[in-house]
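Entry type: protein chain
Record version: 2
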Amino acid sequence: MLGAVGSPGYAAYCASKGALNNLGKQAAIEHAADNVRVNVVAPSATDTGLFARVASQTDDPDAMMAMVARNTPMRRLGRADEVAGTVAFLCSPAAGFISGAVIPLDGGMAARRIV
């Protein structure tokens, strides 16, 4: 999500994620004639071991995870199976004409923040 919106204190992270979004779009353009589709899945906080490790570095990991969930429009963290399901869809024939897309898998956060 931070490839589409900024966040105080995360300039390098946001810039690198934005670069990956544009790299995906560029790769989609360059390889379309080869029948190769390229898309980007952009999840926000997801209830996984990685996010738990990041939260564990705060004074109150449970409070931090609850705050992130509370500030997400859907009022929860994402789940790994939701990320996997999105990727499976993008790999399926049903997504055969989708290329160059950045899929915000973020519980509505990008919709709320982007004007």
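Comment: The beta strands are 40-43, 102-105.
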